Amino acid sequence: MKIGITCYPTYGGSGVVGTELGMELADRGHEVHFIVSSLPFRLRLPNERIFLHEVEAMSYPLFEYPPYDLALATKMGEVALAVGLDLLHVHYAIPHSVSAFLARSLLAPQKLPFVTTLHGTDITLVGTNRSYWGITRFAIEQSDGVTAISKYLHDKTKEEFEIERNIEVIYNFVNCDKYCRKLNPDYRRRFATDEEKILVHLSNFRPVKRVTDVVEIFTRVRKKIPCKLLLIGDGPDHAAVEMLAHRKGVHPHTCFLGKQEDVEETLGIADVLLLPSEMESFGLAALEAMACETPPVASHVGGLPELITHGVDGFLAGVGDLETMADYVIQLLEDPALHAQLAQAGRQTAEKRFCSTLIIPQYEKLYRRVLEQAG
Ligand code: GMT
Fold first, then answer.
1. CA–CA gap between residue 78 and residue 321 (Å, rounded)
2. Distance 61 CA to ligand 1 centre (A)
3. What share of the chain is helix, strand, coil (3-state, %, to 5)?
4. Distance from the alpha carbon of residue 367 to the mean position of ligand 1, in angstroms
5. Residues 333, 340: contact at Cβ < 8 Å?
6. What is the CA(374)–ligand 1 centre distance, in A?
7. Where do the DSSP E strands lie in 167-285?
C-alpha cells in the first residue's frame, strides 16, 4: 500500500507512534509518505520506502496564526495525486483529521480515505475544550476508520463526544528487537557507580506529566538508597524541575539528558522508570521501559492499568501519592529477586501483548477494510 502519515514531529507520544508505525510499515514493504511540518525526531532516513513531504504554513502580517491545517490539507491532496496514495493515516485528531477531511473533499470524486488515531490529550484536554469540541466530533464521525490507543481512551471518546460509530482499540506497540536490555557498563558508568541504582523518567515535561513529582520521589528514595536520576526529554516544566532539584539538594545526582532519539540505550541501563502522570491514555514510555526490563512505578490513571498489572510487571499508585510511589521504588531496589521477577514479567507483557509484530498487522487489516469500504 501507499500510505500517507501525518503526525506532530515534535517530542510527544503521538509523534513517536506515528513515526515508528511508518518505519514498521516500510519494513513490511509498504511505501510510506510522511506529510509533516518538519522531520519527525525519531525518523531514521534514508529509507528507500519512506518519503518526506514538508508542509509550509506561510505566514503573512494579516494572519495572527499561520493556517497550518489548510496548508496541510493542500499538501495531503497534492501528495495523494502525485504519488497515488491509497489512504491517509493521521495521528492526533486536532487538526490533522480535519485537514484529512478537507483533502478527501478536495480530491472527490477520486477516493482518499483516511484513518484517525486518537492518542489522548487530543480527546481528554484539547478536544473537550469548547473551542474544539464540535470540530473534533465532526472529524471523528467523518473518518473512514478511527482507532484509540487504549480501551480507556475508546470509552472516554464515546462518552465525551456522544459518538455512536465504531472506534477500534489498537494498542501502542514497541519493537521488541530494538527495545531490550543491553548490558552497557561503560555507558552506565557515565552516570552512576556500580553501587548506585538508576531511576529514569521520559516525557515531554508538560504539566500533565508531573515531573516535579519525579524529583520528590527521587529525593525520598535517595535518603535510603544511593541512586541517580536520569531525565530524558524536555519541555515547559524543565526550569521548575531543575529548580526543585536544587531546592531538594538532589541536583548533583540528577542528569538532564534532553531530547534523545535512541531512548532504549538509557532505558536499558536503568533500574526503575518513574511515570507519576496526572493522566496517561496509554503511557508509551512505560511500555518501552518494560521491554527493556526496567519496571515502571506509575500513576493508577487512564490507560496505564491496561498496560501495567500492579505487583506483577510494575507498580501503580494514586496520582500524587508520592510516599507510596517512593515505597514501591525502595521495595524494588532493595529486593533483587522481586526486581528480577517484575523485570521479566514486564518483558513478557511487551512481547506477548504489545510487540510491533502483533500490532502492525492490526493496522494493515484496518487499512484493507477501509480501502474495501471506500470502493
Ligand atoms: O502527553 C504526551 O505524552 C503527548 C501525547 C501525544 O499525543 O503526543 O501523548 C499521548 O499519546 C501517547 C502515544 O499514544 C500515549 O502513550 C500517552 O499516554 C498520551 N498522553 C496522555 O494521554 C497524557
1. 51
2. 33
3. 45, 15, 40
4. 23
5. no
6. 30
7. 168-169, 197-202, 227-232, 254-258, 272-275
Tell me if 3 sits within 8 A of 32, measured CB to CB. yes
Nearest to 83 by CA among 118, 46, 53: 53
pTM of the prediction? Answer: 0.96
How far apart are alpha carbons 36 and 51 in whole angstroms? 11
Q: Ligand 1: which of 280, 290, 307 to mutate, most ligand atoms within 8 Å of CB? A: 280
Given a contact cutoff of 8 angstroms between Cβ atoms, the answer to whether 234 and 205 are in contact is yes
Report how far ligand 1's centroid is from the alpha carbon of 210 (Å). Answer: 14
Residue with C-alpha cell 485537514?
Answer: 99
The backbone torsions φ and ψ at residue 220, rounded to the nearest 5 degrees and listed phi first, read: -65, -45
Q: Which atom of ligand 1 is nearest to the CA of 153?
A: 22
Model confidence at 192, pLDDT cuts 50, 70, 90, reads: very high
Q: What pLDDT, in 10s, does the model give residues 105-125?
A: 999 999 999 999 999 988 887
Ordered domains of the chain (ranges, CATH): 2-173+355-373 (3.40.50.2000), 185-353 (3.40.50.2000)
Q: Sheet of 227-232: strands edge to edge?
A: 254-258, 227-232, 197-202, 272-275, 296-299, 315-317
Q: How far is the CA of 16 from the centre of ligand 1 (A)?
A: 9
Q: How far apart are the first and last CA of the chain?
A: 15
The span from the CA of 362 to the CA of 375, in Å, is 20
Give residue 322's pLDDT band: very low, low, confident or very high (50, 70, 90).
very high
Q: Return the DSSP state at 208.
A: G
121 lines ligand 1 (CB under 6 A): yes
Residue the block writes with cell 476508520: 145
pLDDT value, residue 223 = 98
Pick the atom of ligand 1 nearest to 279's CA.
23
Closest CA to 161 of 185, 189, 136, 195: 136
194's grid cell = 556500580
Q: Decide if 315 contacts 339 (C-beta within 8 A).
A: no
